[in-house]
Structure of Aminotransferase class V-fold PLP-dependent enzyme:
Amino acid sequence: MTTTDRPASPDAGATAGEVLDRLRTLQQADLPVHGGRTLAYVYDSGLAEVDRVGREAVAAYAGSNGLDPTAFPSLLRMENDLVAFAARLLDAPDTVVGSVTSGGTESVLLAVQTARDARPDVARPSMVLPATAHAAFHKAAHYFGVEARLVPVGPDFRADVAATAAAIDDSTVLVVASAPSYAHGVVDPVTELAALASSRGIRCHVDACIGGWVLPYAARLGRAVPPWTFAVDGVTSISVDLHKYAYAPKGTSLLLHRTPALRRPQLFASAAWPGYTMLNPTMQSTRSGGPTAGAWAVVRTLGDAGYERLTADVLEATDQIVAGVADIDALRVVAAPDSTLVALATDATCDAFTVCDEMTARGWYVQPQMSHAGQPPTIHLSVSAATLAGVGDFLVALRESVAAAVAAGPVAVDAGVADYIRSLDPAALTDDDFDGLLAASGLVGEAADGGLALPERMAEVNAMLDLASPAMREALLVTFLDRLSRPTSA
């Protein structure tokens, strides 16, 4: 950050126009959220009217508080409407209940917390999940003291049912399945996993945060979709995000339970203090009404027919990308996608991290994924409906990016840096260790405030991180986040 980039002192105040101008300036450094060229983090319907309705609803309810449904009954009505819409999509019985959460991670956290608290007789609870389950389950394990037992996946990247059965014991309170898994975009064998859980009296949660608003419409469109909804006996809860393929504004997900009794441990109340009796259905107490209203407005605007059209578009875009990749040497699709997520791997002539940099240079953001459990690094695509109009341009950019990566050759990490990384102990990483790594990797900015500055190209940094063990990578990135998340002087 240079001196001219620094914001004015808040003590001086600013006009509304100045503040909004400053916001627009700041936002210029962000990835675009419209246009279908950001294939991670955001999900774009490509429909300007839908975006407008969602933004206006968020603004209208930004000051409303979901803490007390008797004070803001309109929010309760909208939440129940959203749950009812999702229940129809997910083949839910009449007994289903649900809650709006802030996102997929909160939905997953609550699913784990509820399973844990439903079994007070288990002193050290565990959950069994495929190695491909979302990292939010690891976060839940960390927060709630539930052991995460990881089981391998097969060559098709789907959960291994026999390995799951072997991992279950009397401490197991939850079995997890993905629909689809984030990293590879495939649906786990939910029917078998749910039957296994049910036979042992264990809950089965399906993480459909990504696929929940796509797979039902894909089935209507005649696609082959593995069973995964409440129609599968033994599925006790499902999470599905509205701010992904329901194309709602950020900040909304749903967690549905098959019955009120299954949800009951999720609800929290406390009268053990002199203030109001706290009563919460989710992890938050105060909840802005904006995201709920935005999601409700978008869902009402699009409706069933609108979502079917958008699903047809996003699946067509996905199909075209998969077909186009087949014609690009040095690149392959890791697993045939069941939904809208695509993982790409390179051959030995280039590397995924350089391809990601080259795509960024051409105006497309694709997400690098590190190597894991013997699998190579990959390029991850979250395809949106808005991507369809630009698939041709995307494939041209991808072909050019792969050619440039082949010409450059696989990125290499300096041997000294590699040795330095291997010498570090993730459990005892010091500021001096981190400073040495920053200096070696070029991540230290030259700004007067001494802040960190990411290079324009990240391939060498990602290759460096890819060398690190998962524990070392976590320690480095936590330290890096700590350095980023510090205020600068005015």
Notes: The longest strand covers residues 172-178.
